[in-house]
Design a protein that fits this description.
Number of helices: 8
Shape: elongated
Structural class: alpha+beta
Order of helices and strands: HHHEEHEEHEEEEEEEEHHEEH
Strand content: 15-25%
């Protein structure tokens, strides 16, 4: 009786082992199938990436545009390391970066990487692993390069933001414009407002909201009703060099309205910034139309002009630091490589002017 009972127990255990073995084999087969699908997907992605890379060299303008946007696709640690390498000044209160092209300051729809997201990583790289995140003091547009100030503490950031708000910071920009402003030096003082453009592709953009207009009868200057939504905007400018239907301009925005420099140049002076496809036309979104001499100098076809980056660079910031404002610093950042390359191609030589 005991022997029979022991045999039954052995058979049950053997059956359980066979079921477990089949389960393991099934799991292993499933894992192998999953691994096979992952390998196939990875191979497909690698092949697609190689295909894109083969396509790009035939279009140098597009290749450069992809290179400029590359920081949006890298790992956050890689982006933080790139920003660290672009640091031009650091003390116990601030860190100053030379912001690269195509990198948003804030996140949003479709944004994979931005400056704000990597501030904790950047702080640890610059100081130590226990460092608190850095704080933004102001912002630059995604397509604008140049001087960007970060603060180590919230108190310092608030103090510097107030300096910007009360216009105690001197800001100098460089831009390459399509056309030559006339006169060569002056001040644009025209209020601005954001409006919706109803075209085949509805969108919003900033535009001028002047307080005066010319009378069509006798050409007299007439004061018109002020737009209650308009903001005062003042930009000082001067030409540093001119050639090939383009100019290198030095710009000082006295106020800080959204897209102020771009709108004042495009609509106020009739000289949009090279690569500014948003403000080269008022009633539509379309690639910038360039003069023939500019296209020849750039070795570019008009059909590829849409790949030109915006040539606007925050060249210099001067501001007081410290709780008492007794430490005045003057910060200068060199324009990026693509900006210098365009200067050479267009023969915009500052030393000769």
């Amino acid at each position: 009786m005991a022997a029979a009972s022991g045999g039954a127990l052995w058979r049950r255990r053997a059956a359980a082992l066979r079921r477990a073995a089949r389960s393991v084999c099934g799991w292993a087969a499933g894992a192998e199938r999953l691994a096979g699908r992952l390998r196939a997907r990875r191979s497909q992605e690698e092949e697609e990436e190689k295909k894109k890379q083969r396509e790009v060299p035939g279009n140098p303008a597009r290749r450069r545009a992809r290179e400029l946007a590359a920081l949006q696709l890298v790992h956050p640690n890689v982006l933080a390391r790139a920003l660290k390498q672009g640091a031009v000044y650091q003390d116990e209160e601030v860190v100053v970066l030379n912001k690269p092209y195509g990198l948003p300051v804030h996140g949003g729809p479709g944004v994979k990487n931005c400056v704000t997201d990597v501030l904790p990583i950047l702080a640890k790289m610059l100081k130590n692993m226990r460092a608190e995140p850095l704080h933004l003091c102001h912002r630059l547009d995604k397509e604008t390069t140049g001087v960007m100030v970060l603060a180590w503490s919230k108190e310092a950031a608030d103090r510097i933001r107030l300096l910007f708000k009360t216009r105690q910071v001197e800001k100098i920009y460089w831009a390459i414009s399509v056309g030559h402003p006339d006169p060569a030096e002056g001040i644009v003082e025209i209020p601005m407002v954001e409006k919706e453009v109803r075209s085949h592709q509805p969108h919003y953009k900033m535009t001028l909201a002047p307080n005066y207009r010319l009378s069509p009868e006798d050409g007299r200057v007439l004061k018109i009703r002020k737009n209650c939504s308009a903001e005062s905007a003042v930009t000082r400018y001067r030409i540093l060099a001119s050639s090939s239907a383009c100019s290198l301009l030095e710009l000082q925005p006295i106020t800080g309205v959204k897209h102020q420099i771009r709108v004042h140049l495009a609509y106020g002076l009739g000289c949009p910034i090279l690569g500014d496809h948003k403000y080269s036309h008022w009633n539509k979104l379309a690639p910038q139309k360039l003069p023939e001499v500019t296209l020849r100098r750039l070795k570019l076809e008009q059909s590829k002009a849409r790949h030109l980056p915006l040539h606007l660079h925050a060249r210099r910031l001067s501001l007081p630091l410290g709780a008492s404002g007794g430490k005045w610093i003057d910060l200068v950042c060199e324009p990026p490589v693509f900006f210098h390359r365009t200067l050479r191609k267009l023969e915009l030589d500052i030393d000769k002017n």
